[in-house]
Every structure is written in C-alpha cells, then in structure tokens.
Amino acid sequence: MTRILHIDASARPHSSAENPFGSHSRRLGARFALAWRTAHGSDENIVYRDVGQQPPQPVSGAWIHAAFTKPEQRLPWMSETLAESDGLIDELLAADIIVAGVPMYNFAPPAQFKAWIDNIVRVGRTFGFDRSRLGDPYWPLLAGAGKTLVILSSRGDHGYGKGGRIEALNHVEASIATAFNYIGITDIRSVAIEFDEFADARLKASIEKAEAEVDALVETLVRERQQRNAA
Description:
five-stranded parallel beta sheet; 7 helices; 7 strands
C-alpha cells in the first residue's frame, strides 16, 4: 500500500482554486491528493503537513551540537532539541511518495520549506558520515528505498523551466533535488505554474496545463506502483 506525505510550503493559507489571492502550489497539491484519493478510494494513507503555516524550528547551535553527538552519548536536552526533527524524519521514512507544494520566493524555496529540509537532512538518520571512510566520507541512507519526490511549484515570471530563457535563475527544483539526492531520493518529478504576476490569459493557460500534468502524473505513479507491487 502506497503511503503519501503531502507538504504545503506556501505562506498563502488558501488555494488559488478557492481564493483569487490563494496559492497556486497549494492548488496543485490539493489536486494531486484528490486524484490520488479518487484512484484509491481512501485518504487513510495520506499524511499532511503544512510547513507554510506551521514551519519547523530553524536549525540552531544546540541542534547542531545534538545532531553531531552520537545517540548513545546524548544528554536529555539533546534528545528534546531533536524531537521535532525526529518526527519529521519519521514521516519521511514512512512515505513512499513525497508531494511537496513549494512556490518560488525570490528564485528559491520559501524559508519555511528550507527549515524543513534542514531538519530532515541529518547525519545518522538520512545520511551517513565517517571521517575515516576511504573516498567519500558521506553516503545516503535512503538510497534504494524506492521513494519518489513530486515538486509542485509556482512562479511569478515565465521561462524558468528546462531550456527556458531564465532557467539559470530557478533555484527551487534544483536545490530541492540536490538535498534529496544527497540522502538517496533520486526519483524526482515536477510540475509548475508560471505567469502568476501577469494575471492574464497566459496564467489561465499555465494553470490548465499544470493541472493536466498533475492528473497525468498521478495516473503514471499509480500505474508504476501497481507494477512494482506486482513484480
């Protein structure tokens, strides 16, 4: 049974499907979740986390001290400091598909989502480190786990996609992929809405195109998971 972790990172609390000032990334995430529920007839295997409205605590000096202390040597305050991170990582480990609604803010993910990334990219839990290891002292701990990341984004301008006129300015998908590849999640799909700041027919067309792509992506992932389970 496939388990979904659905994350929203937009600072806007509503979907643009319901509110003219709402979030396009929330709109795509909600559409993905609805299509998945429709395909499976249940939402019991979808865990939802809204880091846009309830962001994790940012990494602190105490967090770093605790994370880089061996578990058996941690003091009680260290375990307390890492408790939120542990919960977020547990959600990630339990998920087969991570659906992340991440809008572009000033060419990169929102700070709220970066805080989530910083909490789940953690030594000893999602990546390994051994300074005495020959070659690369770091290695991914989630490699081979069969996880898929879906990035659902939105952009004010246009041309940020592959081969686009300002692709080099897009640090959303690339930075997220870098972090996920580092911990061993390399199957990454993405859909994005553009033209938000233009608010004209081009935005409407981009929304329709992205929604169709989300629907097709859900069908593809359902089929892939069925084939994997049957193998």
